[in-house]
Amino acid sequence: MKTTPFSLPLSSPLATASGTIEAREGVLVRYDHRGETGIGEATPLPGWTESLTDCRAALDTAAAAETQGGHTAAMLELAADSVPAARHGFATALLDADARADGVPLYRWFDADRHCETVPVNATVGDSDPADTADAVARAVDQGFDCCKLKVGARSVAADVERVRAVRDRVGDHVRLRADANGAWSREQATRAFDAVADLGVDYVEQPLAAEDLSGHADLRGGPVGVALDESLIHRRADAVLSADAADVLILKPMVLGGPGNAHTLALRAREQGIEPVVTTTIDGVVARLAALHVAAAVPDIGPCGLTTGDRLARDLAPDPTTVADGEMTVPQRDGLGVDPDEVTPDA
Q1: Which residues bind Mg(2+) (predicted)?
Q2: Nearest to 121 by CA among 330, 328, 286
Q3: Fewest CB atoms less than 10 Å from the CB: which of 103, 140, 155, 270?
Q4: Is 206 annotated as a binding residue?
């Protein structure tokens, strides 16, 4: 296993609950397996995964174990619940090599019977006043998106409802709308918000309540507006989230879940329980974005996913082989992830 640190400046600073991020820092992982070189990416995100320091330390430990016991020994050193980004990096490299050795794109390594040319994707619109929000959604629609996610929760419930109404008035009924509250609301606020947007055609609200409040999320279900859980998968094991009957939708971030394989398994488990999976990134480099895209491509009839985040980076690890048109992202049909490991470099 070979690891190389990188830092990708963002096109504009990203405000998070853990502070403002100006660059995405991580580690490239290369691994030779079955006669092929696989590439992976470990890009921790504060508040979602382990720290960059812990990620690097975990990969160093795994690399030492790999020299003695191969990839199985390395994986045993990378626990998804403590160092998910590190595990994602090595697991992706291993899967990329496996798929290359088998001569299939990664999504077909997950499901040999699948053939998927494109995956539907949504646009994301940040917090702003009603007119600017409506303008931003209208621009996304003009670019071909038919599904948009609005960030809510930074303003009062009434103000956010006004923003949603302004969007609906501007773009009409044919555009799917979603909202993401990032756990900002109390139970009372969430109830008011759900009641208010029920007639505005909002598919679901992502993480309306605090991540730990599974019972509160369960109580919100049952109406025309669905409940999607995202941060809850950080604070609670997937088994607890699924058994709580607290979600209509699961937002799956492979970097947070410990790798593409874990995300794919959880997507299928969710489907078995009537819960829809939506795959998103954590503002990653092209290697991790491609891994998330292949997870989505391996799930039949998946809805719009949050994968169009490459434009948030001022530069990337390699040229992106995907394109986005009419709300669809193309899925590379080359072996593995669809990017040549020789083209992936911290200095791309």
Answers
A1: 180, 206, 230
A2: 328
A3: 103
A4: yes
